[in-house]
Amino acid sequence: MAATQTHLRPTTPRTRTKRRPQAWPLRFYSTAVGKKWVMAITGIVGLGFVLVHMIGNLKLFISREEVNLYGEALRDLGGHLVPQTSLLWILRMVLLGAIVLHVHAAVTLTAMNRRARPTAYQSPRSYVAASFASRTMRWTGIIVFLYLLFHLADLTWGFANPDFVRGDPYNNVIASMERLPVALIYVIANVALCIHIAHGTWSLFQSLGWNNPRYNGARVWLARGLAAVILVGNLTFPVAVQLGLVEQACPGSDPTAECDDGSGLAGSD
Prior knowledge:
This protein has helices at 24-29, 32-57, 64-75, 86-116, 124-129, 132-135, 137-155, 169-177, 180-207, 216-242. It has 269 residues and is mostly helical. It has one domain (32-116, 131-242): 3 helical TM bundles of succinate and fumarate reductases (Up-down Bundle). Helix 2 (32-57) packs across helix 9 (180-207). The chain is globular and about 80 Å long.
């Protein structure tokens, strides 16, 4: 029998396409450590905004003029050196970028952790050891994000507030908080925010490598203290409005003019 001949096709060697090396920031961000750093730094940016925002809103207890002049001062940041609202918009873009990076880092880090532990097993002991704040970080973050959108629609863009008047934040806040459902939403959102802050402030030190048993107790008190101050400060607004301790002042008049009938505090001369 004649031997059968098999014709083998010559194989062409495969050429591997070389990937262009990523820039160092992207390589760092692709790691778990990098994502934790981004979450920590953007968390500090967000925490700073929340504190400054709360302190500015406390002018509600001084007068309508003080609140509205404060709002006007934000629009005039930079004085006559730059166009009006330009620095304010830069700050807004920085805050928006911090929010986007914070959310993206949280989502991708969660996915990375799930790939590393696909069974997702958690013993009862480890579940009990995790604090309530750490177990609810995802949900409190979602609540805060959704409330932020409503807050912008209510007091910045104005289409969610039927009594909105541009340039009159004092009366806008009070008109909004006079609606009981809005006041309740504000309370729930701030409780979620402060639960998020309590765990986030504690964990950002660990994310940045500032972890020492000698100072861990102070970290806990700092995180809880900041969360408590922000919670109490923010909740004074809906409570004061609902109790009638702060009322609208001269609605429809010049927002930066001093009212003839007082500051808006109930019972003022």
